[in-house]
Design brief:
Elements (H helix, E strand, L loop, with lengths): L2 H19 L10 H8 L3 H8 L3 H6 L4 H21 L2 H10 L10 H6 L3 H16 L1
Helix pairs in contact: 5-6, 5-8
Protein name: Antitoxin Xre/MbcA/ParS-like toxin-binding domain-containing protein
Organism: Caballeronia udeis
Length: 132
């Protein structure tokens, strides 16, 4: 078996496990609480990043504004984990890596600023550079 294919299969399973951990058992929505736990941030910080009132996460976690923010963050995390091959590395990168091309903001800050598409383009360009 090709070792690079095996890494891809393991990576997919790993990201699928991560996604499964974010499922809200009571609805088809993402769990803000589980997302906060995965990133080791409290709900107040998560609410600030999503630009919602802190009570929104507990009282209306399925609201469009909360779910849109979570989906955008997950898109960036997926792109990063596709490049790194490791969900844990992607989570660390998302929270901590200052990106020079974006004025040394982190991906986390950029997603909060509504710039998920810019971060994904950046990640894809890194992947193309590594492959090309």
């Amino acid at each position: 078996m090709d070792p690079s294919l095996s890494q891809t299969v393991d990576h997919r399973a790993s990201f699928e496990q991560f996604m499964e951990s974010l499922r809200d058992s009571d609805s088809p929505a993402l769990s803000a609480r589980a997302f906060g736990q995965a990133l080791k941030i409290d709900l107040q910080t998560l609410a600030k990043q999503a630009h919602v009132h802190r009570n929104t996460l507990s009282r209306a976690p399925g609201s469009e504004s909360v779910q849109r923010f979570l989906r955008e963050a997950i898109r960036v995390l997926r792109a990063a984990s596709d490049v790194s091959g490791d969900v844990e590395r992607a989570l660390f990168w998302y929270r901590n890596e200052p990106l020079p091309v974006f004025g040394y903001k982190t991906a986390e800050q950029l997603v909060s600023d509504g710039r998920a598409d810019d971060v994904i383009r950046y990640v894809v360009s890194l992947e193309a550079g590594a492959a090309g």
